[in-house]
Amino acid sequence: MSEVEIPLHRLVRRVLDRAAERPERRYLLGIAGPPGAGKSTLAVLLRDAFPAAAAEIAPMDGYHLSNERLRARGDLARKGEPDTFDVAGFVDNLRRLRGTARGTPVPWPTFDRELDEPTPAGVIFIGQRVVITEGNYLLLDDGCGWSAVREELDECWYLDADRDVLEDRLLERHRRGGKSAEAARTKVSESDLRNADLVGATRERADLVLRERGGRYLLV
After folding, report:
1. Which keywords, in A-to-Z order, does the entry hold (predicted)?
2. Other beta carbons less than 10 A from residue 7's beta carbon
């Protein structure tokens, strides 16, 4: 498998050129990939590399179901799996971002990792030309409603990573979130890595496949 480095400015230029073909509305870019691949980091780097106020992030994680609701369903331990999100709400708000004229506010929920809960209206879209939405299941085609997401995106990239890298990053993430070492290992092995396998099967649906190595992004 050949890989070639692609500078961040070239990725930005790609999006700006395509967005210019549709100046009447926002351009929606998706970044999919397994948990721990670095999607959030890439989204932030991209956003900050665009001209001032041209882009903002609409994270999929804002559509986690609340812990209270998951607990009532007996699904709290499965949090992060495809059916533990408000998929319909996510798709509806993507459509709103596409269909609402720039200048009219569109609120979007974010996710507070310390509270482990969504934050309503964590970001407000107003004049941004580009929306970057990132999450595991953007390319998923299943019975939970995720297949409707791809229809709302102008393009979707897949950010990949080696399995051992994913495992190390996820263990560290859960430990930082307050889990014990044992609980973190259980969460990673019984949930996160299973999700990574599920997401890995969606890679071929992406417009670009990228891999991060040492702070550089490689086109696969």
Report:
1. Kinase, Transferase
2. 11
Q: Domains plus CATH for the chain?
A: 4-219 (3.40.50.300)
Burial of 6 (0-12, 13-18, 19+ CB in 10 A): middle
- For residue range 20-59, list pLDDT tens digits in order: 998 888 999 999 999 888 999 999 999 999 999 999 999 9
Those residues whose C-beta lies under 8 Å from the C-beta of residue 214, and which sit 6 or more positions away, are none
pLDDT in tens, 146-186: 999 999 999 999 999 888 887 778 778 778 878 888 888 87
Let me know: does 58 contact 97? Beta carbons within 8 Å: yes
Residue 110 has a pLDDT of: 96
3-state secondary structure of 210: strand
Sign of CA dihedral 165, 166, 169, 172: negative
Burial class from Cβ neighbours inside 10 Å (0-12, 13-18, 19+) for residue 215 reads exposed
H or E segment and range at residue 5: strand 4-5
